[in-house]
Amino acid sequence: MKPNFKTYSLLVISDLHLSEGIHPHSKKYSLKEDFFFDREFARFLEHYQNPGKWGGKKWHLIINGDMLDFLQVTAYRDAPAGLHRPSRHPEYGLDCGEAESVYKLGKIVEGHREFFQALAEFVAGGNLLSVIKGNHDAEFHYPAVRRAFLEQLQNAYDSTPTAEAVAESGASRIKSEMVQFPDWFYYEEGLLWVEHGNQYDGVNVFPYFLSPLLPKAPGRSAERANEIDLPWGSLFVRYLFNKIEMVEPFADNIKPQTLFIRWLFRKHPMTALKFAVLDGGFMLRKIRRAWTPAKPGAYATREQEHHARLRGLADEWGISEADLRYLDGLRSKSLLTETSSLGWRIARAILCRPRVLQPLLIAVAILIAIGVVVAASPLFVAVIPSVIRKLLWERWRLIQSAITVVQWIVFPIVVVAAVMFVRWLFRGEAKKETDNLAIQSRMIAKRLGVQAVLMGHTHDADQMSIGDRGEEYFNTGTWTKVFSEEERLIRDDIEFVFVQGLRRNGGLQLKLMEWDDGAREPRLLKLFEDPGDERRKQRGRDVGKQAG
User: Fold this and answer.
1) 136: region left, alpha or beta (phi > 0 left; psi from -120 to 50 alpha)
2) CA atoms of 512 and 497, how far apart (whole Å)
3) Residue 93: what are its φ and ψ, rounded to 5°?
4) Which residues pair with 523 in a beta bridge?
């Protein structure tokens, strides 16, 4: 019998980003690993399993997206035959199909054995688990991945001392009904809405999140039609960040991604140029592949599947289909396939036509070279022997005239482009992701009448009032490390952030907490006032009035 998830007290975390972990032979971490806290996570769960501390209450743990980072699992040692690997570039690892994702899941569990043992003991102890998919683990869409996750959880439990101790008493195995995989959100009427939040980020949005596979287009092989249709941010991680992290292991912890690009150009300009010229070209080819099949009707099947699943979710969660369609419509436009801005349309038109792109790149390189030569021309003239200048005097006058023309035409273009690039490089960046999630949370709360909206994705822990009746927005941040000097001024290097929700008189008492591993207990998270909070609230009210 399936338990009533809505009667358990809540724990909500997000953005753990487990990838390859510790290699079983070398006992060293993968350079792409971001999660180093398996033991701390085990102690966190152990604290909430202690019946004496909570009056025998059981807990429902919601991992709200990006629990696993399939994008950063690139090793395919011992991979079974038949799994699809990208041609010419094996260092990018296996592709994103169903069988490949099951294999990647096995590698993640292998590198994080203690984490999965603790999670398995938590579920076996009578607690519940919900795993909501995010943009880094959209592979939970596959039924085979969900089945493999349950199998891996059982295998992890079987290897614990607890399993050995209770085996003699004939204790049952982990029950599948204790674990659920919400396709999009977790919802409690009048109380709570929980989703990852990537759908409100144009870089990481899926056009059809409930059917996130590549479109069935003519010429696409059957095996590729069952592959995740990665958004731009995921392509960026898979084909660029994974290479950059061989030099800077924590590159993808800098949010947003544009801020990391600026940081890389400022700190490691030669490394940035190398990646832009070599690996960036391969990523652009992948982007072109994503753009090319975007023809009328290409996504028709995926759209139908998406809306069919949406109707199923409406019935499952007791939400009207009209409300779900409204919330689905709040998502951002994909910068990869749906943007309507002139700049993106021009870039898309150029990248999808190699015969235009290659001559354009050559022309840009020539213009830059001419600009450099023109800037250095006085030096060249000074070192040319006078005898040669006299022999070529007439021709030299023509050359000087041509150089003068080029100076007035080409050099200003190069200078303006350089100034614009430097200005972009050192310009500050507003936290648009955080702003947008708070605004969309207000819209969700208003539409559904819930008291709290919980999200993750941005890696910025936050709590904010978003309504006139005490509605609140929570962001559960991340369990990865903090690396920027600016963040260290107000945050610890490590913050294990979560939301704790105690059931009280039919309601939920929600608190944004931090696990203090040194003290072995939770504590309230320290948050500082942001001067932009009031502006965000007012903007949210204005948007809400327009929508209403």
Assistant:
1) alpha
2) 7
3) 80, -170
4) 514
Strands (E), 221-379: none
- Can you tell me the distance from the alpha carbon of 168 to that of 166, in angstroms, rounded to the nearest whole number? 5
Closest by alpha carbon to 161, among 107, 127, 124?
124
Q: Write the pLDDT tens digit of every residue in 51-105.
A: 667 767 899 999 999 999 999 998 877 777 777 766 556 677 888 889 999 999 9
* Selection from 136, 287, 155, 290 nearest residue 201 by Cα: 136
Tens digits of residue pLDDT in 443-486: 999 999 999 999 999 888 999 999 888 899 999 999 876 554 44
Q: 194-230: per-residue pLDDT in tens?
A: 999 999 998 899 989 999 988 765 555 555 667 898 8
- For 197, how many CA atoms within 13 A lie in the half-sphere containing its CB? 29
- Whole-angstrom Cα distance, residue 544 to residue 447? 10
Contact 239, 286 (CB under 8 A): yes
Residue 281: the pLDDT is 66
Mean residue pLDDT across the chain: 79
Enumerate the β-bridge partners of residue 521: 516
Residue 491's alpha-carbon distances to 209, 260, 265, 473, 484, in angstroms, are 33, 19, 25, 20, 10
Q: What is the DSSP string of 437-452?
A: HHHHHHHHHHHHT-SE
The phi, psi pair for 179, rounded to 5°, reads -125, 130
Strands 507-516 vs 185-188: parallel, antiparallel or unpaired: unpaired
* Strand partners of residue 501: 10, 510
Report the b/e string of 489-511 with b at 16+ CB within 10 A: eebeeebbbbbbbeeeeeebebe
What's the full length of the chain, in residues? 548
Residue 193 β-bridge partners: 187, 453
